Amino acid sequence: EDKLSSEMKNEVIQKLCYEHLNGSCVKTPYSPGPRLILYTVVIFGAVLAVFGNLLVMISILYFKQLHSPTNFLIASLACADFLVGVTVMPFSTVRSVESCWYFGQRYCQLHSCFEGPFCYASIYHLCFISLDRYIAVTDPLVYPTRFTVSVSGMCVAFSWLFSVIYSFSLLGSGANAAGLEDLVSALTCVGGCQIAVNQSWVLVSFLVFFIPTLVMITVYFKIFLIAKQQARKIESLNNKTGRCSDSFQDRVAKRERKAARTLGVAVLAFLVSWLPYFLDAITDAFLGFITPTYVYEILVWIAYYNSAVNPLIYAFFYPWFRKAIKLIVTGKVLRANSSTVNLFSG
């Protein structure tokens, strides 16, 4: 009987995040097979987010031909995704697979503070990129004088400052948990890392996400309507003249439409990744936090994976990015004057 009691006690201890520690969270470990699959999937995402976005940043900042206002916005967006891969995903990997937080309460709050700014920074970068594309498609010849490097710099500064100030002030002040003291007290245990957000701030956070999203959807809808009109005009002109129109204006318009299409795919990927998470967060707050932990973790990782997707989109749609990667990976960037190489030729 004593032996049976001892075995049961050991089984209970093994299911705690911290053995022999009072107030430890209960651990729900996966069996070895699913555990290995989960680690593989999430670590692959983190590695892709780190190295993929690092290649985007190096390409744009190193090669002089890529120094344009739009590309500086893309490089800053890649920086946000890179930081998700470095500061958020590795720690979330352990939390998701082991169902325990082993990095201390202070870093738990800091980790939660990091998630917000990088998400909001991404959405505002994408919003400004959509406005940039709108100007480029509607008036491609005047565009270079309207969306300059200084304008791009102001967009980058706003995206980062607003996102960081909003997220850190909300979580740092504890305003997110106001009115949820009993729930926080009930959920608090050693080895846990759950940040509660009350209804008011969930609603504000959703609006901070939704407003730029609405702007993007509206702008890209207009872009594709205009692109369709431009294509029809060129086709009509070609039919009338009996030859292919290849004026400078037509070539510029075609290039800008292609860039808008590529960045439209990046926006769509962002929405598919983050919208389910935000919809669940707002639903959960108003229905008493009913989402099962595993569902929440799945939604979080779908959102995180967006940071790994953008470099794949650029690699698929941009020949210049594939050429830049090849030069970086093969070490040809170490040659003299390699920064001035023509990435848009053949």
TrEMBL record:
Provide the GO MF annotations for this entry: trace-amine receptor activity
Q: Where are the transmembrane segments?
A: 36-63, 70-91, 147-168, 203-225, 259-278, 298-317
- Domain G-protein coupled receptors family 1 profile, residue spans: 52-314
Q: Does the keyword NAD apply?
A: no
Concerning SMART domains, the annotation shows: 7TM_GPCR_Srsx (SM01381)
Please tell me one Gene Ontology term that the record gives under cellular component. plasma membrane
> What InterPro entries does this protein map onto?
GPCR_Rhodpsn (IPR000276), GPCR_Rhodpsn_7TM (IPR017452), TAAR (IPR050569), TAAR_fam (IPR009132)
Keyword annotations of the record: Cell membrane, Disulfide bond, G-protein coupled receptor, Glycoprotein, Membrane, Receptor, Transducer, Transmembrane, Transmembrane helix
Where can this protein be found? Cell membrane
Q: How does it sit in the membrane?
A: Multi-pass membrane protein
Q: Does the keyword Transmembrane helix apply?
A: yes
From what superkingdom does this record's organism come? Eukaryota
| Family (UniProt) | Belongs to the G-protein coupled receptor 1 family.
Provide the protein name.
G-protein coupled receptors family 1 profile domain-containing protein
Organism in which the protein naturally occurs: Bos indicus x Bos taurus
Q: Which gene encodes it?
A: LOC113898732
